[in-house]
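tool=predict chain=A
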Amino acid sequence: MPSTDRRRFIQQSLASGAAAACGLVAPSSVMALADKPSAKMRLGLCTYLWGKDWDLPTLLANCEKTQIYGVELRTGHRHNVEPTLTKQQRASVKKMFEASPVTFVGPGSAECFDHPDPERLKAAIEKTKAFVMLSHDCGGSGVKVRPNNFHPNVPREKTIEQIARSLDEVGKFAADYGQEIRLEIHGSCGAMEPIKQIIDQVRQKNVGLCWNCNGDELLGKGLAYHFDRLRKRFAGTLHVRELDDPKYPYAELIKLLVNTNYAGWVLLECRTTPTDYIAALNHQRELFEQMVAKAQG
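tool=predict ok
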């Protein structure tokens, strides 16, 4: 069995076993989970706050300990998986992931394509391409980017078109490396109408949206309406906060994902500072498993 398939088998087996151990599914029905909607959907971690101070070996050990089997590595954090890594260092990172049941989902860059200054825009595009190569070399599958904001004295339609064309450029580059560009729904350009106008203009099919649970999608006609309008362009990742946050209908979101057979990564981008991160990650995983099991019926 190839190493990639073996890791995927281990991840799925462990996730199914954990659900059974928590009493979320009967042990005799574990194998049947593979036939249920969104059976390939997995919970992972975006190292926004949780995990930002862990070096890579610690991060992988803690993810394995808590059965969190995928990570999006935020740029600028202690795990230090950055475009500045040498060829040898990238190979070392890839080997660390290959020896672990944890998947490198990809880098979480902070690159944006809204800059009115042409030189800043060019630099953001080139830096994104560097992240694409980093992701490829380290075994990732895509790079997270941002739209990001509208600017005074710049027509909104100009900014929207600029972002879309920039995404096409980096998307075309990423396709040559087998990578996905994941546009985090972020900033003032991440309101529901502008983000739809942006993604509708993007021609590259390997550019998708990273749903971000900002709250804008709860306005107007509500979550289900906005979800349905954008679902066909979802990327292989989306971000959630703490799943027990009463301000967001996470059970409804999980139900929508299950109903549309989402097969990507649901990444925890948590904002709190718990005293025990291991216990907090375990708690979030248990909540996720419960929500998925309930949505699968």
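The radius of gyration is 19 Å. Residues 1-32 have pLDDT under 50 and may be disordered.
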